[in-house]
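Example 3.2
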Amino acid sequence: MIQEHKWRFLNDFITRGGRPLKLFMDIVVSMDVQIRESYSESIDGFSKNELAKMMVLDGVFLIELFRKVGRLSPVHQDDPIFKMIWVSPLLMMDILKIENQIPFFVLQKLYDESRTDERTLPSLIFEFYNYLVDRQPKILKKCENLEGKHLLDLFRKSFINTNNNGDSIRRCENAPLKLIQPATALAIKGVKFRANHQAESFLDIEFENGILYIPQINMDDFYSSFFLNCVAFEQCYFHCSKDITTYVVFMGCLMNTSTDASVLSGSKIIENYFTDSETAEFFFHIGKDVAFDIKNNYLQGLFKEVNDYCKNGWHVGWAGFIHKFYFENWPVLSALAAFMLLSLAALQTFYTVYPYYRKDK
């Protein structure tokens, strides 16, 4: 279905701009070598013109889509892409799939040659995605001139760059490092969980005074697809940071079971559109076989701080005592609480009835 709309959007693009299609074809043909070098697999099966046709058709479709959402191009009131509410979310996910990426420099060149205003292409892209991922205007402003290898990389960087430009590794030289324990085990040792509503990115995780501050995230189809594709890209592309992979591994450590996921849901860290068991299973599977360097990631300092906190200290012993005392004695405590409630109810009844009894006497 989308193929039909690509040709329609291309016609809108050419008609409105008044510049011939051949101009854009020639521009893309001139970048043929650079385009082919951008792909890990050979695309020699396409001739120069075939490759250029594909790039122009896909590139113009994306540009027109972003422009229409940004109200820079007119939208027909019955356009099915915007009228049917299920189309746009699926399209947003599809555009960010790693197998659907085209080089960003192609998009940028096509946009520059057809530009009629001062808006940057990244600003239009982030406005488009802000319908699903609502972010503060100041964050969007910072991303206006961001660059990436492709749309997926650009969108991925918009989260990383809010965290000190992606260079937030806390060095722990010569320190033995290991992954952290699940949320239920950490809770037994006194670690508390709080949703960080002030964070600019879901990557901005902090640990302070026994409290893990984790930004709230909506676990839905969009984010699950986004994480899958980001991890795939970071695993395949050596020269990029591995921040999304680190986040996924971190969340996978916290959620071994549905009970662990319930701890985070109860703390309002995860707003679930899935069940707790589905969320735990997702993070377990996505982080299961990824290449992850525990000594070289942006959370390595946090891993060490949490593990050091859980090793010893009075807070760990006290938290363990409270947990053990409660769970070993909860039948007794429950019975005692029930007895006290019954006793209070009996006393209330007695003092309600007694004055009338005295009066009758």
